[in-house]
Amino acid sequence: MDKLAVGIDVGGTNIVAALVAADGQIAEQWTRATGAARGPEAVMDDMAEMVDELRGRLKIAVDDIIGLGIGTPGPLSHRDGVIHRSANLPGWKDVHIRRGMLERTGLPTILDNDANIAAFGEYWAGAGKQARDVVAMTLGTGLGMGVITNGEILRGHFENAGEFGHTIVEMGGRECPCGQRGCLEQYCSPGNIAKYALERIQQGEASSLSDLVGKGEALTSRDIVDAAQAGDAFALEVWDEACRYLGVACVNIQHCFNPQILVLAGGMTKAGDYLLSRVTHHHKHHCWNLMDDAPEIRISALGNDAGVIGAAGLAWAARNSGVIA
Amino acid sequence: MDKLAVGIDVGGTNIVAALVAADGQIAEQWTRATGAARGPEAVMDDMAEMVDELRGRLKIAVDDIIGLGIGTPGPLSHRDGVIHRSANLPGWKDVHIRRGMLERTGLPTILDNDANIAAFGEYWAGAGKQARDVVAMTLGTGLGMGVITNGEILRGHFENAGEFGHTIVEMGGRECPCGQRGCLEQYCSPGNIAKYALERIQQGEASSLSDLVGKGEALTSRDIVDAAQAGDAFALEVWDEACRYLGVACVNIQHCFNPQILVLAGGMTKAGDYLLSRVTHHHKHHCWNLMDDAPEIRISALGNDAGVIGAAGLAWAARNSGVIA
Q1: Which residues have C-beta within 8 Å of that of residue B16, sequence separation ≥ 6?
Q2: Which of residues 3-42 of A touch B (CB under 8 A)?
């Protein structure tokens, strides 16, 4: 029996668990509701049950599982295996998830944050495969990022590197809940694109989107893409502005981390080439000509599976480097 | 005899060579004019002669030298040991400096760019000693940067990571010779601070600095500091604006690389606390309050020796990791 690793991607709504082979292929997968409000002990019990269930489905022994990688929202400590707190897991505070899962499953456990596991998945088995330097920018609700440099996740002293959504791109600009002004995330994360478009419509901006808003529906970045593709001038302007900020973000990522591949991931990439072609255009337009060190910008290859595959990939990487036996 | 490494820092004007002990202390040092116009072969001959001369002064054998680290302006390839070209070494093109120096001295040779060796020096034996994650921002003429993450220099796929002076902080802002607009370097590098202050004075801005300008003297950032400290309102405004951009740069460095120590280096740090206190103030003022992951901002401990010490440090690190025997 070829050995497998477990990957678990814990979100505020769902937990996805999978058995993943050494080549990044998912052998078996299961999704359950998180029920985070029941507290971390109950959720860890569920996760251990999911590992057993997946093993049972494939009829494999504990000894054929090399380890367990878990990704959760942060802030957390990969080094200590502790979730400090999380906006999506209310009430969780300093949860020793590595210890808790080792006790429950007997498996060596690696913890990392959701942006890092998604980036590691794309690096290991997705759009960044075969490259050593990969950055993945996840456009989910906010703007998350994971940086792989020379095959390793860039963590930093406080394990908080790659918080690129909070780099300041407009001094004195829009207020961000983080306490800063002018954070990148305010200008091009899906949630904020919709938020500021809604404000302008409510202030009387003419747009086909006002019908949706008038019906009391929540506006999403998807609605803006649809309206822009249907020729709505306001939606086009909003979308182009967001892509301009993303293009400039790609310039800054290039100069900071100098990746070979820059992966765009998250729900916003459902726009496909309508996102990629515009971001690439603005990247080229704003970028230097001193030397040719531009990354290739690609859409995520793994989609929603990037997290669970990347979590398992961390277990594989730890095993291959001798960190776990 | 304790073993030593050679560090050589090649600038457009001078070459500094030193024998450096395993603890980062300089045992012997020598500075000569570069004479880059004579071409790379003649300059490499000089460097080999400097190594011999330094050995002779301390009466040590070739076998007691563990290796040679060289820093030069780039762009260059550390991996290949080749200087592609350099604004400060006119006419140099694809110079195989690692091979050339190995042939001349018999010493295993490591090449890196000037910003990286200076950062490595501060990390290894200077203001960042004992930390694993250190960023050094060199405010010389331009704005250079070296990033040490988990004890390693961050290089990136194209070996061009940490070009932080060319991150865009003002979309559509000042033109930069690199081809971009709004590069950080345009707003707070010493050369550009002086350049834009001069423009404003020539446009009639009232300032004590107009006397200097009237005499046809070149304006420097040092002149601006002196005038600001003497109470000149215009100079104060210019200085504060530069420190504001540097403070915001520190916020962005924090979120990108998450270092424990952020070192300010280069000629502009002669302003001492007049620089540090203002940059620290603006960093605090602009930075988030989501979590306490701010780096400690310090002035360079090694000053002009950071490069030559860091170059030797790279040879020591290569030896300790088994890259060189």
Answers
A1: B8, B9, B29, B30, B31, B304, B307, B308
A2: none
Interface contact B291-A154, CB threshold 8 A: no
Residues B203-215: tens digit of each pLDDT: 999 999 999 888 8
Distances (CA, A) of B325 to A180, B60, B319: 49, 19, 6
ipTM: 0.96
Query: What pairing do the DSSP bridges indicate for beta strands A65-72 and A109-113?
Result: parallel
Closest CA to B307 of B110, B159, B120, B148: B120
Cα dist. B276→A167, A261, B118, B292, B296 in Å?
Answer: 21, 37, 19, 20, 11
A211 Cβ neighbours under 8 A, 6+ residues apart: none
Q: Is A57 on the interface with B (CB under 8 A)?
A: no
Residue at token pair 């906010």: A142
* A91-95, B51-55, B149-153, B255-259, range with the lowest pLDDT: A91-95
Residue A293 CA to residue A259 CA, distance in Å, equals: 9
3-state secondary structure B103-133: HHHCCCEEEEEHHHHHHHHHHHHCCCCCCCC
Give residues 81 to 110 of B whose Cβ lies within 8 Å of A: none
What DSSP character marks residue A206?
-
What is the chain A residue with the closest CA to B255?
A: A163
Is A167 in contact with B256 (Cβ distance < 8 A)?
yes
Work out the number of other CB atoms within 10 angstroms of the CB of residue B37. 11
pLDDT mean across residues, chain A: 96
Query: In this predicted model, what pLDDT tens digit does every residue of B167-193 receive, in sequence order?
Result: 999 999 999 999 999 999 999 999 999
Show contacts of B218-222: CB within 8 Å, 24+ apart: B218/B194, B219/B194, B220/B190, B220/B194, B221/B190, B221/B191, B221/B193, B221/B194, B221/B267, B221/B268, B222/B267, B222/B270, B222/B271
Whole-angstrom distance, CA of residue B226 vs CA of residue B241: 16
- Closest to A259 (Cβ–Cβ): which among B156, B167, B258? B156
Query: CA nearest B130 in A: which residue?
Result: A157
Chain A contact set for B169 (CB, 8 A): 168-169, 171
**Contact flag A161-B256 (C-beta cutoff 8 Å):** yes
**What is the distance between the alpha carbons of residues A47 and A104, in angstroms, rounded to a whole number?**
9
User: Do A270 and A306 meet the contact criterion of CB atoms below 8 Å apart?
Assistant: no
